[in-house]
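quick one, 189 residues, struct below
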Amino acid sequence: MRYSRFFGLALVLLLAGAIAVPAQENKTLREPDVIFVPTPQEVVDGMLELAKVTRNDVVYDLGCGDGRIAITAVKKYGARGVGIDINPERIQEAQENAKREGVGNRVTFRNEDLFEANIKEATVVTLYLLTSLNVKLRPKLWHDLRPGTRIVSHSFDMGDWKPEKEVSIDGRKVYFWTVPARPPAGGSR
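---
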């Protein structure tokens, strides 16, 4: 009798724990595609200048790392910033940096997979990914973003989608595109 009561209580606690655990867990994301390498501040400034960011923009930094691009867009231009990164440690760091810089009310950092994230409200997208990832991301950019949305990439191009501008900032390449009304052949909208 005592054994069955103990077993029954253990089963109830086990089931209650099993039900409560999923509500506390975050969605498990895959491993990052690239390691975090911060963009130098001079390049951040140059990227945002090249994109002609204004206070009317919503700047999305895909693979935001420590949040410096989105934070700078908010502080320097008065834009609204959104950073997306698959690594929860980077998101925590970005949130701490935004708080320290006093811009937490104008910038949001989301722990998401950039290939699945909702980016439709962006007017500017910044990237520091590999060319292969930019090419993989390109159909999403063409599909999700409105024509006229500006895209700026540090160091890596978009394969056969040629940039409208290419500049060098402290010896680093920065590429600029505008999302077209109709994507080039092979694209989708």
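Residues 55 and 78 are 4 Å apart (CA to CA).
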